[in-house]
Amino acid sequence: MSFMKELTKGLIKENPTFVIVLGMCPTLATSTSVNNAIGMGMAATFVLVCSNIMISLIKNVTPDKIRIPVYVVVIAAFVSIVDMMMAAYVPDLHKSLGLFIPLIVVNCIILGRAEAYANKNNVLNSLADGIGMGAGFTLALTVVATFREILGNGTWAGLRIMPQTYDPMLMALLAPGAFITLGTLMATINLLKEKK
Amino acid sequence: MGVLGQIFVMAIGAIFIQNFVLARFLGLCPYLGVSKRLDSAFGMGMAVIFVMTMASAITFLIYKYLLVRFDIVYLSTLAFILTIAALVQFVEMVILKNAPALYKALGVYLPLITTNCAVLGVAILNITPLADGSSYNFLFATLNGFLSGVGFTFVMLAMAGIRERLALVDMPKSMHGFASGMILAGIMALAFYGFMGLKI
Predict the structure, then answer these.
(1) Domain limits at B42?
(2) How far, rounded to the nearest angstrom, does the alpha carbon of residue A67 sit from its chain's CA centroid?
(3) Residue B7 within any structural domain of the chain
(4) Among A140, A177, B101, B148, which residue has the fewest nearby CB atoms (within 10 Å)?
């Protein structure tokens, strides 16, 4: 498969959130605003790319039986790096994402790609796969966050979209809003797929 | 307030007010994945309660007596996930030996408890200072793990009960599976928001 194809498949065709349905917890928890969504997406993408490269590099020397613990250690190491970097350079974002940065370790997308892809493919393709899947995750988060932020706050990435008189629907920012938004989006995507 | 009173407040908080699944968004994969049948939801819930309680106790001790003592707190994510992975492996072996039927019903979700963010989440929350600056002691950290697990099991059983009946409903095809599960979870979360105003 060509490099470009690996790069773009994660965006729509194999979107990790909407199509493969992995990594639900961060999708729901950090999509309260577009800024948070992009920050979370970037952090996860960084870990995904680094761990994909690393796992692809060591795939021949890793004994098959203990591969999962090895992956988890590799991923946890990169997550610790991201955690400390974000605490140092973007403390506000770090604070608002909070618990969900260390929890990137248990994001099924990352372990899933390690097991299903990086384990079997060369470094270059794994890099492309990591970037593509990361971008797909970021895109999905941003789409969910767009709906929630506009409905719940009347803004998009901090810019005012709705008129001043708009009465924000606070529920969209709270937990129930997250579930219902994602559920509705998934039903819409299923409907579009059926029509095709 | 005595210790018992504090435990009561903690139980109400962990199960109803700050429920792990519906208010904190932790542990959604098993919540949506294993809640199709009541009996497997129950088995999964019990496994999660056990792992969360044990993980809370062990990670708290590791944090306090290894990581803080040797000033390597930055390794906590790594240390916690390794502890949890080993613990889940152990639980898996015990269930396989003693209850093969349950092992089969839980399927892929049993090893996946390792990547259940509720377990790592509770381990990290236990060492995070509370709003008033104090932090949990060993007893309360372990209890927090146990009660959060109970909260998780409680909503998962409720969800499984609803879904068993929902399976008989004639829904549009696009709403099947995760889509209806999500919206259902949303409605449940809305109901749980009623507990938010609870002041004890």
Answers:
(1) 19-195
(2) 23
(3) no
(4) B101
The whole-number average pLDDT for the span A76-92 is 92
Mean pLDDT of A31-48: 91
Cα distance between residue A186 and residue B175, in whole Å: 8
Give the model confidence (pLDDT) of B12-62 as tens digits: 888 888 888 888 888 887 888 778 888 888 888 888 888 899 899 999 999
pLDDT tens by residue, B65-80: 988 888 888 888 888 9
Beta bridge partners of B37: none
Quote the distance between the C-alpha of residue B7 and its chain's center: 18
Give domain status of residue B102, yes or no. yes
Q: Find out whether B32 and B121 touch, Cβ atoms under 8 Å.
A: no
Number of domains in chain B: 1
Q: Choose among B29, B116, B179: nearest Cβ to A190.
A: B179
CB atoms within 10 A of CB A175: 24
CA distance A169 to A155: 12
